[in-house]
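Inverse folding, one chain.
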């Protein structure tokens, strides 16, 4: 179910890197419970837009509000408090390979359970139980005590999703969450990510390269090109042909 409450709101968002305008005045509203894919050719500004949403990048102009917080003005403890409410899933999983799967998942609770923690037994029993539940949910309860680095890419991304869920986030940001995976694994990880977000009523914004995955799994597509929103549509009203237009080079005018 999606509500009316705006979870993400950018207005006139501009960001340049030297002469490159990565975000050229982006207005984006994402409401509670929506699952949104940011699509567009390489360099169109998808990751830069996503990075603004948890304050990893600061805009040159414009406003960014996430979960009611003015991200541009937020500093220090306010920004840390916001980041605790935002789960992030990365393309390269970002697990600590030498630690067990369970320890990696438990680290998702570091923001709400005071640390430092050394080893699994130092975590409160209730948090361990919750971590185990999340691992079970992503289908990896039987791998809890295995080294994370020994898992396949798809399994590692499932662990990263369990870690993000243990954070009890309200918003999930996923930057190319399946770009490093083979097509079959990519589909199963997208299925998992969207399913858990729906089950928990979480809002999810991801960047994707695969148009077919966006059409299958997300509710809404925002298409970027040269830092501007060129398309913003519910997925069930879109077809692949229209979407492919986003990726075509601009027609060359022959004099
Ligand atoms: N830290 C940075 N320093 C310099 N230029 C940057 C930086 N981050 C992004 N850019 C540039 O901004 C533009 C948008 O990059 P961004 O990574 O947001 O695009 P993208 O759509 O996510 O691309 P991809 O699909 O290839 O990941 C690109 O031209 C990129 O080179």
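Residues assigned per position:
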């Amino acid at each position: 179910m999606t509500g009316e409450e705006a979870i993400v709101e950018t207005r006139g968002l501009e960001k340049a890197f030297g002469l490159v305008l990565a975000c050229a005045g982006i207005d984006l509203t994402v409401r509670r419970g929506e699952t949104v894919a940011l699509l567009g050719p390489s360099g169109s500004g998808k990751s830069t837009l996503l990075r603004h949403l948890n304050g990893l990048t600061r805009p040159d102009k414009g406003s960014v509000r996430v979960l009611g917080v003015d991200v541009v003005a937020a500093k220090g403890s306010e920004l840390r408090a916001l980041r605790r409410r935002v789960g992030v899933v990365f393309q390269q999983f970002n697990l600590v390979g030498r630690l067990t799967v369970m320890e990696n998942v438990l680290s998702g609770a570091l923001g709400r359970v005071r640390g430092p923690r050394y080893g699994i037994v130092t975590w409160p029993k209730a948090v361990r139980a919750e971590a185990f539940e999340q691992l079970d949910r992503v289908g990896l309860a039987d791998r809890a005590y295995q080294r994370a680095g020994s898992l396949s890419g798809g399994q590692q991304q499932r662990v990263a999703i369990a870690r993000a869920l243990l954070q009890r986030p309200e918003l999930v940001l996923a930057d190319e969450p399946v770009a490093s995976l083979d097509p079959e694994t990519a589909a199963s990880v997208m299925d998992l990510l969207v399913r858990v977000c729906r089950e928990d009523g979480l809002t999810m914004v991801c960047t994707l390269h695969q148009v077919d995955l966006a059409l299958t799994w997300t509710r809404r597509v925002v298409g970027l090109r040269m830092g501007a929103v060129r398309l913003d549509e519910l997925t069930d009203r879109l077809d692949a042909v229209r979407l492919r237009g986003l990726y075509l080079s601009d027609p060359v005018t022959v004099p």
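The first strand starts at residue 6 and ends at 17. Strands lie at 6-17, 20-31, 35-39, 61-66, 69-70, 86-89, 171-175, 203-207, 220-225, 228-234.
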